[in-house]
């Protein structure tokens, strides 16, 4: 019986450590850090579902893995998402006004109806990204040039 208990303790410890540090699914500890401190650099929040209408203004998520995350209808004005992986993420209706998305992977992300006005997208990857009705007014585009005031759905330079 004692050996069985030791085996089960080791098994569950290994399983817990593998699931937390494997990088294949988001780490709830990382989400807690973001919730409490507004910062979680280079953390794994891939596939996470964020509560709609949550306030992450000025959050620091630089280098974070947010691939496949549902981040729809969030307030992320002024957030630092530089070099983050947002591939396949849902950012529909989110407000990213003045946010730093430089060097971010936005491939196949959905930014429909998002507010990206005055955001910085210099060097971002936007292959397959949906910008339908997104506000790109005065946004610094991937090539480092400003989008014209009033740009919606695409960057007019």
Detailed description of the structure:
With 157 residues, the chain is an all-alpha fold. The chain has one domain: E3 ubiquitin-protein ligase SopA (Pectate Lyase C-like), CATH 2.160.20. It contains two helices and no strands. It starts with a helix and ends in a 120-residue tail after the last helix. Mean pLDDT is 87; it is low at 11-24.
Care to give the gist of this entry?
This protein is an all-alpha fold and 157 residues long.
Q: State mean pLDDT (0 to 100 scale).
A: 87
Tell me the number of helical segments per DSSP (H or I, 4 or more residues long). 2
Element-by-element helix/strand order? HH
- Identify the CATH class: Mainly Beta
- Quickly give the structural class: mainly alpha
Give the biggest beta sheet. Answer: none
- The total count of strands amounts to 0
Features:
single chain; 157 residues; mainly alpha; Pectate Lyase C-like; 0% strand; elongated
Sequence-ordered SSE layout with sheet pairings:
Blueprint: H1 2-21, H2 28-37
């Amino acid at each position: 019986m004692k050996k069985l208990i030791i085996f089960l303790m080791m098994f569950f410890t290994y399983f817990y450590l593998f699931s937390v540090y494997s990088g294949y699914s988001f780490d709830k500890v990382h989400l807690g850090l973001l919730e409490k401190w507004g910062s979680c650099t280079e953390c794994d929040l891939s596939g996470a579902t964020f509560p709609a209408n949550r306030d992450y203004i000025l959050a620091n998520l630089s280098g974070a893995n947010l691939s496949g995350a549902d981040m729809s209808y969030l307030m992320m004005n002024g957030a630092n998402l530089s070099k983050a992986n947002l591939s396949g993420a849902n950012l529909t209706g989110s407000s990213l006004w003045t946010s730093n998305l430089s060097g971010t992977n936005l491939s196949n992300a959905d930014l429909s109806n998002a507010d990206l006005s005055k955001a910085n997208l210099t060097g971002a990857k936007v292959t397959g990204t949906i910008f339908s009705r997104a506000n790109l007014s005065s946004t610094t585009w991937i090539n480092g040039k400003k989008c014209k005031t009033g740009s919606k759905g695409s960057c007019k330079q």
